Automatic annotation (TrEMBL):
Its EC number is 2.7.7.65. This is diguanylate cyclase. One of its GO terms (cellular component) is plasma membrane. It comes from the Bacteria. Pfam families: GGDEF. It is an enzyme of class 2 (transferase). Residues 159-293 form the GGDEF domain. It catalyses: 2 GTP = 3',3'-c-di-GMP + 2 diphosphate. It comes from Pseudoalteromonas lipolytica.
Length: 294
């Protein structure tokens, strides 16, 4: 069959708006290229992202055929003409028909979709952090504490912990004597001190007001009690400058409950730790008391 006859056979492809080129299967010589392909090929030749001035046909032959791949994406950036085409090769008898599909909108929509997903994921993470973080002290809040306890309980087969309920001593005096801004400073200073004093075996959260909770995970009860005692002693060394330029210290009272012995739910442990905390306050404050159940 002559080349002229081949061209006549494929001339119907000129009615397609998508670029099509027909190559001989063995030698990869051009048999036919429709008008749309010639237009796209000229834009590609002039494109700013084609510094070597390589023709589109050369690219297709080298990348799509010689590399034995059936799809090739080509981006054309020629001033106002910006398009992305996906070329697909199909062998039909002695010829290879390479069809181009304009996927510019598809790529744009994919980009917008991925960008939107990223923004939504970031927003979701931010909302999660806001919902689980105390905004004043920047430590986990009550909601985060309960979620973490549930996670730890299900994660460790032989889970054990102590729950220390901590209450800053005479906090109302700070607010009444020096104002709420100073009271906030006391809370922030104490929270930072605890965060700097504990390791990964502990989880610290603010429950509300001047009340905090410290969970110590998989450590012997006696060590947990000693750690809380040590935390109390280091807290008592903190000195804050008041608005009237005087130094003032702080301390706390704590009640400690042991997982298993004093309960297995966080509600139960906090309730029993609160009973021990009450005893600590009744006996002069600035002390740590273990819960002693009936």
């Amino acid at each position: 069959m002559s080349l002229e006859q081949n061209n006549a056979d494929y001339s119907v492809l000129n009615y397609l708006q998508l670029p099509v080129v027909v190559l001989s299967a063995n030698e990869h010589k051009v048999v036919f290229q429709n008008n749309s392909f010639q237009l796209v090929a000229q834009h590609y030749l002039d494109a700013s992202n084609n510094p070597t001035n390589r023709s589109l046909l050369q690219l297709i032959i080298s990348k799509l055929l010689e590399n034995d791949t059936d799809k090739l994406e080509v981006e054309i950036n020629d001033a106002s003409y910006r398009h992305i085409f996906r070329f697909t090769a199909n062998v039909v008898g002695e010829h290879v028909i390479v069809e181009g599909e304009d996927i510019t909108e598809l790529k744009r929509n994919q980009f917008l979709f991925n960008r939107t997903n990223t923004l939504l994921e970031d927003y979701s993470k931010q909302m999660f952090e806001l919902a689980h973080t105390d905004q004043l002290t920047n430590v986990p809040n009550r909601r985060a504490l309960f979620a973490k306890f549930s996670q730890l309980q299900s994660k460790h087969e032989e889970f054990s912990c102590t729950v220390s309920l901590i209450d800053l001593d005479h906090f109302k005096r700070f607010n009444d004597s020096f104002g709420h801004d100073f009271g906030d400073q006391v809370l922030v200073t104490f929270a930072k001190h605890v965060k700097d004093s504990i390791d990964d075996t502990c989880y610290f959260a603010r429950l509300g007001g001047e009340e905090f909770c410290l969970i110590q995970i998989n450590i012997k009860d006696t060590f947990c009690f000693a750690n809380t005692e040590k935390l109390l002693q280091t807290t008592k060394t903190i000195k804050l400058m008041t608005p009237d330029n005087s130094n003032i210290g702080m301390s706390f009272s704590a009640g400690v409950a042991v997982y298993g012995k004093d309960g297995i739910s966080l509600d139960e442990l906090l309730n029993n730790a609160d009973k021990a905390l009450y005893i600590a306050k009744e006996n002069g404050r600035s002390r740590v008391v273990n819960f002693e159940g009936a």
